[in-house]
Design a protein that fits this description.
This protein has about 240 residues and is mainly α. Helix content is about 85%, strand content about 0%. The chain has 11 helices and no strands. The longest helix is centred in the C-terminal third of the chain and has 25 residues. The two termini are about 25 Å apart.
């Protein structure tokens, strides 16, 4: 798990996204799925505090994207509850599919343009979908990125918004997992341990990003993630 979070930190440091995708593509291969998901919920809010601080503009970003934040906060517990009602193979299959679709979205990098008058309706739809999917799998970043890119906002605003979304996702998931009894003291401590290699990996990833071609690095990572997602989905199909 420590190595997986180190790898996830490298990818996030190098690409600016992808830690949950990486960790949930690797950790379910050798630990129980509930531990893998809970650890992500512990790590996410802590590592994104740094991103929020670096980006700045917390209050304006929070106000602008409140139409997304509210349905996100409502649907995250719903997704967690749904996760407790479906079987482990079905949840494993869903996780594999989410990882595969997420990587395909990143590879395609669609240049969608959302008119300004549709920003609020788009925010609500994104919040509903990201909350439900995030509650089930903790992987909802590609939906956030797709929505923000479609608005054509500047990078600093995007980084502030993503930091807020990821922080809230992790915090609400942690509370929700605790409420349904999935997060206990041992799983919480495992999550805390994984924060350290995640931060170390982000530092390494920042150095790598300054030395390697960004496009080639990105394609290699996404290709590997798609293969891992397909493997997890096949495990779900096999029961």
């Amino acid at each position: 798990m420590l190595a997986a979070y180190g790898a996830g930190g490298i990818i996030k440091g190098g690409l600016g996204f992808g830690l949950p995708l990486v960790t949930l593509s690797i950790t379910p291969l050798f630990v129980a799925l509930d531990l893998a998901i809970v650890a992500n919920a512990v790590v996410l809010p802590l590592i994104n505090i740094v991103q929020i601080k670096q980006a700045g503009g917390l209050v304006p970003a929070f106000r602008r994207f409140l139409p997304l934040i509210l349905p996100l906060a409502l649907c995250l517990p719903l997704g967690v509850w749904l996760g407790t009602r479906i079987s482990a193979p079905a949840l494993t299959l869903a996780l594999g599919i989410v990882i595969m679709v997420s990587t395909l979205i990143q590879v395609a990098n669609p240049r969608l343009v959302l008119p300004r008058h549709l920003e609020r309706p788009g925010a609500v739809v994104t919040g509903l979908a990201a909350g439900t999917i995030g509650g089930l799998t903790t992987v909802n970043g590609p939906l956030f990125v797709l929505y923000l890119v479609s608005l054509g906002i500047e990078r600093r605003v995007m980084m502030a918004a993503l930091g807020i979304f990821f922080f809230l996702t992790g915090a609400i998931l942690g509370l929700s997992f605790a409420a349904v009894g999935v997060m206990d003291a041992p799983r919480f401590l495992w999550g805390l341990l994984c924060v350290l290699p995640a931060f170390a990996g982000m530092w390494v990833g920042n150095m790598i990003a300054s030395r390697l071609p960004q496009a080639a690095f990105r394609r290699a990572v996404l290709g590997a993630l798609f293969v891992l997602g397909a493997n997890i989905a096949s495990r779900g199909l096999a029961g």
